[in-house]
Structures are given as structure tokens and as C-alpha cells.
Amino acid sequence: MTTRILIKNGTIITFGSPCKVLEHQALLIEDGRIARIAPREAIPGPFDQVIDAAGQLVMPGLVNAHMHFYSTLVRGLGKAAPSATFQEVLDNLWWRLDRKLTLDDVQMSAEFILLDAIRKGTTTFVDHHASPFAISGSLDRIATAVKNVGVRACLCYEVSDRDGEDIITEGLEENAAFARRCAAEMDPQLRSLFGLHAAFTLSDRSLERAAVMGRDLGIGFHVHVAEAASDVALNLDRHGLTPVARLNRFQMLGRDTIAAHAVHVSPADMDLLAESGTFVAHNPQSNLNNAVGIADVQTLVQRGVRVGLGTDAMTVNMLEELRVGLWAQHLRQDNPTCAFMDLANTLVVRNPELASQLWGCPLGTLEEGAAADVILVDYHAPTPLDGNTVLGHLIFGISQASVDTTICAGRVLMAGKRLMIDVDEAALAARSRELATRLWERF
Ligand SMILES: [Zn+2]
């Protein structure tokens, strides 16, 4: 039976290129897709549900191009030693933490942070997971969390050499097993990529094994690239190639591959990324926090690289990430008026493109035929709101507004700022604190 939801009286912001503002249009959802965008009177009933979006913006669910659900249980952990370099941040915090994660921790980390994502209107995630002593089945556990909450996620396991041969093999196989599951089920909420930590933690042999498996599975790679200067120095020192050139040597670049960060890339690296169509996920808050530098988004875009936006687990709020990205780019370029469109396009154009590519249907934009991932945001515009001004409103105003309603795949996950899913949040939080306490004891 067809489920029909009508959203009326809102101002529609389409995203995509160009990002349009549609007034006096209603939006009809049928069976998880946007069936019509037209004047209210042109869409005949009956409807299962009518949502009055007066005083609200109707926007697509937002897409996060680089995330680590597993970092949720680190919030407030004060035991990590002070770190002077990016390598020490990994050694003292992340690689200590991920080695102690259990499968229960992994599922909880995802489930809890995804409730917050619903509140922030982020409905699609590209996640990058590590739990080197709880690998087998970890992606299935994250998938269970994603299914329970009702959003979409593209998952992978980050293979690295740091824990030895058996762990490498287990990581490779976890990627393959989950990719086979996705191909078999074609679940509209789940997709997969082949995960790698970074070129500096992978030998040529490991890269070759992953490259062969990824190609056989027909999926792209999701890998940290040139996040810190030390990544580049280590690769040059050991292999005589930059991280980008090394991945290119193993034919791992391409339109299906996500290179997270690309902070320390040369002009030649940028050309390799552009020519191959590799998607760069820019994570400004993480880069600032780790003091690794600020990616030169302006030049990347000028040279033809597809640059989208991730949060690297700093937040699930994509509009906050976008704002910080713009301020950081101004500082990077020493220019307070540059790169506005370059940054805005990461979230408004490139992330929807990535999601559409991964899911094989229009996703992340409001158009007829697109996936019905829709959010309603409380917002009265104090200045004219149209196609010329919408991106300014997005960064300076809408980013500060609250999300009222979140719909993913035609399912209402939040309405009137109340979660509509079958999850007892207080009980989940209590259980999460229990697991975190035990994890911190092991840390
Ligand atoms: Zn990351």
C-alpha cells in the first residue's frame, strides 16, 4: 500500500546546482520518494499525513561525507596524555581507544550519535570504522544501529598494519563480507566502501591486497589522505611517493573513492585527484582541533577536485561544520571574502552528488524522483530569501536555526522536535554511560 505524505506551506530549498528557493509549492512523498513538487492545489489527495510547514524551510536531509561513529564514547575522557603531534594524538588517544572497543561499544557508539544526527537533520553518513580487536561483525553491528535509528550509512572497516598480519586479514575480510551483504540485500539504508586507515600505516603488500579485493567487489575506497605533514613525510621517506601518488600507483583513486582531508597535497597530487575524479572530504573542525593545517579548498576546487564536507566525528551538525569551514578557509587564504562558493558547494552540491552516486538514485536534493530525505527547519528570513541569497542565509542564519522535523526514506523520524522512533533515549544513554565507564577503565 502506498504511503502518501504531503508537506505544505513551507519554503522549499532544493540544494544541488543551482540551489533554488521555491515558494508556494507543496511536496508529496510517496513510498520513500519525492513524487511531486507543485502548487498545493495541483496535488490531489487522499494523504496518509499532511504536515503544515508554515514558518519553516523544507530542506533535504544533510549528508556527512566522513564520520567515525566509534568515537562517541570518548566524550569527556580525560585520561589521554597530552599530544604534541598528530602521531601522538593517534598514539595517545585514538589507537589506545579503538583497541579496547567491544562490539557492544561499537553498536552503542553509532546508535547514540545517530539520535543526535536526527536532531541536527543529518540523515546520510559515510562512516569509517576501527575496532582492531573486535572486527568481525562490527559493520553488521553498526548497520543494526543505522537500521534501528532509521537513517542511511555507507560503512567500511579501516584496514591498517599497526596490529599485525592477522588483524590486517580480518579487516580486509570484514570489508568484503559487508560489501557482499550490501550487494545481496540492496537495503536502501546501507551501502559499503572499502576502508583503509591511511597510506602511512599500510605496506605495499597490504595496499595491493586491498586494491585487488576492492576491484573484485566493484567498490571504491575510503581512506585518510595527507591529513598531517607527517603522513606525506613517512610515505616519501619509505616509498619515495606522496600518499596520493602511492594510492594512484595501486589504482585506488577514482570517482568511487573518498580521500579524507587532503590537507598536505602538492599541485601534482591535486591534479591526480582531479583527473581521477576522487572525492575529497574536507573536515575543517577536525583539522583545526588536531592542528594539522587547513586544506586549501580554494585551490583544490580551482584545479578541478570534487571537494565535499565531512565532520571526522567532531559533530553531526553539518551546517556548523560548513560555517567553521568558511572561517578556516578565510584564515588559510589570509582573505576574508574568498572561497564562499567553494565551501557552500561542499555541502549543497558535492555531498548530495556523492550520496546519489553511492545510493544510485538522487539523494540529498529536493527534486521529483529523489529519495524522500527531508527536514523542516524553523526559520523566518529577516532579509530577502531567494536563489541569490540562500547560501548566505544557510551559513549565517539557517545554521543557527533548529530542526523541527526529520524524514528519511519517507519515514518520519522526528516531528515537532520529538523523536518518533522506537528508541528509549534515556535508557539508551544510561546504557551508553555504563559501557563508556567500562571502556574508560580498560583505556
Ligand atoms: Zn577520519
Would you write up a description of this structure?
It is globular, with a radius of gyration of 21 Å. The N and C termini lie far apart (51 Å). The protein has helices spanning 86-98, 103-120, 138-149, 165-185, 204-217, 229-239, 243-249, 267-276, 284-289, 297-302, 318-333, 340-359, 390-396, 425-442; strands spanning 4-8, 11-13, 21-22, 26-30, 33-38, 49-52, 56-60, 62-67, 122-127, 152-155, 190-192, 194-198, 221-225, 258-261, 279-282, 306-309, 374-378, 403-408, 411-415, 418-419. It is an alpha/beta fold and 443 residues long. The chain contains 14 helices and 20 strands. 40% of the residues lie in helices and 20% in strands. Zinc ion (ZN) is lined by residues 66, 68, 128, 224, 260, 312.
Percent in helix: 40-55%
Which oligomeric form is depicted?
single chain
> Radius of gyration in whole Å, from Cα?
21 Å
The number of E-state strands comes to 20
Biggest sheet statistics: 7 strands, mixed
- As laid out across the biggest beta sheet, the strand order is 3-2-7-17-18-19-20
Alpha-beta content class: alpha/beta
Shape: globular
- Give the low-confidence spans: none
Bound molecules: zinc ion
Total DSSP helices: 14
Distance between the termini: 51 Å
Question: Which SSEs are present, and which pair or pack?
Answer:
Layout: E1 4-8, E2 11-13, E3 21-22, E4 26-30, E5 33-38, E6 49-52, E7 56-60, E8 62-67, H1 86-98, H2 103-120, E9 122-127, H3 138-149, E10 152-155, H4 165-185, E11 190-192, E12 194-198, H5 204-217, E13 221-225, H6 229-239, H7 243-249, E14 258-261, H8 267-276, E15 279-282, H9 284-289, H10 297-302, E16 306-309, H11 318-333, H12 340-359, E17 374-378, H13 390-396, E18 403-408, E19 411-415, E20 418-419, H14 425-442
Parallel strand pairs: 1-6, 2-7, 8-9, 9-10, 10-11, 12-13, 13-14, 14-15, 15-16
Antiparallel strand pairs: 1-4, 2-3, 4-5, 7-17, 17-18, 18-19, 19-20
The structure holds zinc ion.
